[in-house]
Description:
This protein is α+β, with helices and mostly antiparallel strands. It has three helices and six strands. It has a six-stranded antiparallel β-sheet. It comes from Nocardia stercoris.
Amino acid sequence: MLQARVADCLARYGIPVRTEDEALGFEYDGTLCSLRAVTLVPGLDVLTFTGVLAWDRPLKPQLHKKVADRNAGLQFGTITVIARAKQLADIVLRYTFPAGGLDDEALTTMLLLVLSGAGQARKGLIP
């Protein structure tokens, strides 16, 4: 139910959403995004957001500095460097928030704030 409301809220802003493996997938400002509604306990529904800000970035000290700078300016969520083989890394933003009690206007506002932060954080992480 909550996931369907999220899809409707995003559609009002022209964001095409697809359903994938019990989650919503879409792209926003170059960020690959996934949103999933989870009931932790009855009455506590949360949305988990994951956004891939950049991938296959050279794993160097300046990358960690850029990510730290973006984390300092981010209102919602945490950006993480995920090291992979061959000295490459992916940069991911994650955020989980209670959303079950939000009306559609508040839910849309919250979603747009998170997505806007992801778009801003992504700047400068890609060539």
